[in-house]
Amino acid sequence: MRSGFLLSCAALVLVSGVANADETAAKAEAYLKKAEIEKIVHDYLLENPEVIIEAINIAADRERAAEAGRVAEKIAENSDELFSNENAGEIGNAKGDVTMVEFFDYNCGYCKRAMNDVTALVEGDKNLRVVFIDMPVLGPSSELAAKYSLAAKRQGRYFDYHQALLSHKGGIDEALLQAKAKEIGLDVERLKKDASSSEIAQILRANLNLAGTSGITGTPGFVIGDKIIPGAVGKDVLGALIEDVRKNGG
To answer: Same domain, yes or no, for 130 and 177?
Structure first.
């Protein structure tokens, strides 16, 4: 009995040893094959580096497409606040077939540069509507200027005041804001009262939230169709994007 048991154990050890040896051999073979494949790939890439460049370009294209999709989704989610914002200033054709939105700050030098481009686009395109969304991010004087600007809207002179402030070179303070208002014939006392109202403060908070949820990270920031265009890119670039929306939608 005892000898039979010992023989059985020995047989199990032998079988187990053979199985482990086979497994080890299989792993070694797989490792060698992997090393061979890696060497083949390595040598191929060294001989054909353009393959790496092509792969990088493909990955970049995919990421750009994915980002464009994310931007389009954000714009669609905020469509009403962007394109039909009753609290924003606007110029151009109220029933135009394309609406361009601009987020801006009165202390932004690039916004000052972009103003002439925007004005020229409206003058040359009778079917364009432009919406201005105050985004005061460059300090307290930017916020104060935005409040006065929205107060000017209540007197029906938003764009006149908008142009006056963006044309100004230098710092902005309350004295300047009131002087510019007087120059274009606004009721300054009413302007001061409206600018300090809680309603206008709430509009500015909503504007900043809208910028954040829409993916606007700086000024100027334009929204045309389902695209965001950061910076003062010039009249020709904006005009081409407007025409693209007109022809292809977006």
So the answer is: yes
Is the domain of 130 the same as that of 40?
no
Are residues 37 and 156 part of one domain? no
Q: What is the DSSP letter of 78?
A: T
Kindly write down the DSSP assignment for every residue of 4-65, as one continuous string. HHHHHHHHHHHHHHHHHHHHHHHHHHHHHHHHHHHHHHHHHHHH-THHHHHHHHHHHHHHHH
Q: What is the pLDDT along the chain (250 residues), one digit of tens a residue?
A: 444 543 444 443 334 444 465 677 667 676 657 777 777 777 777 777 776 676 676 665 565 555 546 766 889 898 999 999 999 999 999 999 999 999 999 999 999 999 999 999 999 999 999 999 999 999 999 999 999 999 999 999 999 999 999 999 999 999 999 999 999 999 999 999 999 999 999 999 999 999 999 999 999 999 999 999 999 999 999 999 999 999 987 6
Q: Does residue 222 lie in a domain region?
A: yes
Please give the Cα distance from 198 to 182 (Å, whole number).
23
How far is 116 from 220, CA to CA, in rounded Å?
Answer: 13
Cα(115)–Cα(89) distance, integer angstroms? 14
Query: Which structural domain range is residue 60 located in?
Result: 20-77
Confidence (pTM): 0.74
Q: Is residue 3 part of a domain?
A: no
